[in-house]
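Long-time lurker, first post. I've been practising inverse folding by hand and with some scripts of my own, and I keep getting stuck on stretches where the structure tokens seem ambiguous. Below is the full token string for one chain I'm working on. Before anyone asks, I'm not after the true native sequence, just a reasonable design that respects the backbone. If someone could post their per-position residues I'd love to compare against what I wrote down in my notebook.
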């Protein structure tokens, strides 16, 4: 009894919060640049560095600009990129996704040539950037045909692997997409976007990648954000189908799913701090309503604390720079 009221022995958290050095000593969660993945948008052209309106500080880069971008990331300690492509032209099937000289295939070749194995190259596998209608698969009438899409994803992933991708990351949310890719690609790592909610927070990305659906939305294939137990089923299905790593997306709005996945599965776990999470912090910071650095680092730390060992984030380069400074 006395122990609970005795000021000398009662829990007093402030004892360990007194100085920056003490706080650093007892910090439970540490971010490291090597856990960050930088998404990159690749577009046609030469010498193009086009800022994305909805994502200040992010650019669409032509292939020849990629080695310099990779160099900046590597200098900061970021060792992994996630590639998205804006093709020269689009069609109903999204054939640009698996073209031998497709935009991301070219990007992978240029990066590999410039930095060899220094960088882990992850290629997103989806059709939405390549289809004229903006959906993540092929249409039958107004609906996305799951199994017809699987065979196209199973062409796209090997083409990206042949170009030199280390990891393919299927994000189309078609049932059986991991199995379809695993069957044709036994030796390439798969990062499955396992639990991907139909989220309002992808808005800025769709401007960046020119991939907004021309009609309807993605709710018949992406998950209902209300469902956590279903997220677990999606994750288990992807692991059974042969995924090596799994991803939860978005990150902050789905932090409970990150924590649940960390507690229940043992493979590497990624969370994607998506475009809207990035844009919201940027916009509030521009207005002086949030401190950009503090808000970004608090969010990234929360994602790591919930259990993500890999964080895909548009802050990757900037955050790595902050991490390389002495933490106050
Ligand atoms: C492709 C894909 C999307 C994102 C990642 N891969 C768009 C979508 O599902 O609509 C979103 C990433 C972001 O918002 O940063 N399907």
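-- Answer (accepted) --
I ran through it position by position. Result:
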């Amino acid at each position: 009894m006395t122990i609970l009221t005795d000021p000398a022995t009662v829990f007093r958290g402030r004892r360990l919060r007194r100085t920056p050095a003490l706080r650093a000593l007892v910090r439970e969660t540490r971010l490291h640049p090597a856990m960050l993945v930088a998404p990159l948008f690749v577009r046609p052209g030469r010498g193009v560095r086009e800022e994305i309106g909805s994502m200040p500080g992010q650019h669409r880069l032509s292939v020849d600009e990629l080695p310099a971008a990779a160099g900046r990331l590597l200098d900061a300690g970021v060792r992994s990129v996630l590639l998205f492509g804006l093709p020269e032209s689009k069609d109903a099937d999204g054939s640009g996704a698996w073209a031998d000289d497709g935009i991301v295939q070219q990007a992978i070749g240029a990066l590999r040539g410039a930095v060899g194995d220094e960088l882990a190259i992850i290629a997103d596998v989806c059709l939405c950037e390549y289809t004229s209608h903006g959906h993540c698969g092929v249409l039958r009438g107004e609906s996305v045909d799951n199994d017809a899409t699987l065979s196209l994803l199973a062409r796209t992933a090997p083409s990206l692997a042949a170009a030199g991708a280390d990891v393919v990351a299927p994000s189309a949310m078609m049932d059986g997409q991991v199995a379809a890719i695993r069957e044709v690609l036994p030796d390439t790592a798969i990062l499955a976007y396992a639990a991907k909610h139909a989220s309002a927070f992808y808005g800025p990305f769709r401007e960046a990648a020119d991939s907004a659906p021309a009609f309807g939305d993605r709710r018949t294939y992406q998950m209902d954000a209300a469902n956590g137990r279903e997220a677990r089923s999606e994750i288990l299905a992807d692991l059974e189908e042969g995924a090596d790593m799994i991803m939860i997306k978005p990150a902050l709005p789905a932090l409970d799913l990150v924590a649940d996945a960390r507690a229940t599965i043992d493979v590497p776990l990624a969370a994607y701090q998506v475009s809207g999470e990035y844009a919201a912090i940027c916009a509030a910071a521009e207005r002086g309503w949030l401190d950009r650095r503090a808000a970004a680092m608090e969010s990234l730390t929360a994602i790591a604390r919930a259990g993500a060992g890999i964080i895909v984030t548009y802050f990757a380069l900037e955050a790595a720079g902050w991490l390389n400074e002495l933490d106050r």
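A couple of notes from the structure itself: The chain has a mean pLDDT of 96. Residues 97 and 156 are 6 Å apart (CA to CA). Happy to go over any region you disagree with.
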